[in-house]
Amino acid sequence: MNAVAPDLLRRRLLQGAGGSLLAASALGAAGAQTRVPERASGQPMPELARPLPAGPQRRLGWAVVGLGNFALNQMLPSFADSKHARLVALVSGNRDKAREVAGHYGVEDDNIYGYDDFDRIAENDAIDVVYIVLPPALHADYTIRALEAGKHVLCEKPMAPTVAECDAMIEAADRAGRKLMIAYRAQYQAHNLEAIRMIQDGELGALKYITSAHSRNTNPEEPADQWRLQKEMAGGGSLFDIGIYSLNAARYLSGEEPVRISASIHSDASDPRFREVEDLVLFRLEFPSGVIANCSSGFSTASMNRATAVGADAVLTMEPATDYYRHSLSVSSKDGTRELGLREDNQFAQEIDHLCECIRADTTPKTPGAEGRQDVRLMLAIYEAARSGRTMPFESDYRRSREELLRGYAIVEALKQA
Q1: Which candidate in 113, 142, 245, 252 is catalytic?
Q2: What are residue 290's DSSP bridge partners?
Q3: 263 plus 406 within the same structural domain
Q4: Residue limits of the Gfo/Idh/MocA-like oxidoreductase N-terminal domain (predicted)?
Q5: CA 208, CA 286: separation in Å to the nearest integer?
Q6: Which residue among 157, 179, 184, 383 is the active-site one?
Q7: Sign for the pseudo-dihedral over CA of 285, 286, 287, 291
Q8: In the chain, fewer beta carbons within 10 Å around the N or the C end?
Q9: In sequence order, which ranges of 42-180 are alpha helices (DSSP H)?
Q10: Parallel, antiparallel or unpaired: strands 207-217 and 292-298
Q11: Sign of the CA dihedral running 381, 140, 101, 74
Q12: CB-CB contact of 358 with 364 (8 Å)
């Protein structure tokens, strides 16, 4: 007699005797002891590895201000992976483009705004959060107006070109009783969070120094690069645009704030890209513990995206460190090199959901206005150190604890279990 596949036998049993046979009697030789259900039936809720996402009506409504390359290709698609947010409104200076985008994302035509009628968002109760994705020179204006309209704000980095504007944004959030978060996506990304934990837990031995480099070749023919080469819009050149990744990484990997800064700036005067903004910036940060960070940024080189932390016992390397979609984390020691095979997560959705959770729980975001202000202060100090040619002292009362640095680490645990 030919063996019958268990699933086929189960179907035959269900078809026979009015579907009421017991599996135990029919499958006795196989030792099965479970009843074959007569019909499909619901099962009790199992123990969940992750919480269920919020339902559509409980998700916070987001408006995105600025429909450039980054918003269209990175942020807007990430709402599909968010558990707590939904896209409900768009703000753009090009209404035809906004209508086309709205059609793809199910945004109602009445929820499309221009820059000239932006303040009407105050009348729209469906909007809980406004995400500012504009050139840095416009951040303060639109952030303050969104806060005054009663909305919470996620603002792209750098926070603003000046410390005074950062202060005005923070004060506006305090007056309005709303959350202000700066979009440091890497601080919500699993590989970076795991790197912070490993350093904080001493897995490299005593931390000695950090290197971090972010550079790329700008193209003035590309609309996304045109405003980046205008100081009035960008606030600065490579340092403000991508050097901020090197700077921020040095701060969250060390877990400290710099006390001394030295720097140099190098730009080719014959290159029309650098008539207004700087190209290559090399800067050195000294931290209270004695840790040194050597960092760089550039607008005229092949792409670099790297961060390294060197300890007494091991070296941690992330390359790419702050990419949009791919990351690598390895640790080298006397025992060899091992790759940490973390699964990729959607860092954009993670930062969106973090702000939503902070709004619901009425807690301060991991990367509040004070975090953005600190980087702006430091970048302006780097410029000053480069101009003076001296090592400049830097004083700050801004500090973050280990717990604050590792907020969101549950992302890593979930990915390890997945």
Answers
A1: 245
A2: none
A3: yes
A4: 61-184
A5: 11
A6: 157
A7: positive
A8: N
A9: 69-70, 76-78, 95-105, 139-148, 163-176
A10: parallel
A11: positive
A12: yes
At 239, the amino acid letter reads: L
Which pLDDT tens digit goes with each residue over 139-151? 999 999 999 999 9
**Domain end position, chosen among 149, 183, 217:** 183
The token pair that represents 138 in the structure block: 């416009």
- The verdict on residue 117 lying in a domain is yes
In total, how many domains does the chain have? Answer: 2
Considering the entire predicted model, what is its pTM? 0.87
> Does the active-site annotation cover 157?
yes
In contact, 210 and 294? CB cutoff 8 Å: yes
Residues contacting residue 254 through CB under 8 Å, at least 6 positions apart:
199, 207, 210, 287, 289, 291, 293
What is the percentage of the chain residues whose pLDDT exceeds 90?
A: 85
- Cβ 193 vs Cβ 414: under 8 Å: no
Domain range for 313: 190-344+369-417
Cα dist from 389 to 136, 350, 392, whole Å? 27, 40, 9
Nearest CA-CA partner of 351 in 122, 82, 31: 82
* Average pLDDT score, the chain: 91
Query: What is the pLDDT at residue 43?
Result: 65
The answer to whether 132 touches 155, Cβ cutoff 8 Å, is: yes
Please indicate, yes or no, whether residues 178 and 218 belong to a single structural domain of this protein: no
Q: What is the pLDDT of residue 27?
A: 39
Domain boundary among 157, 183, 209: 183
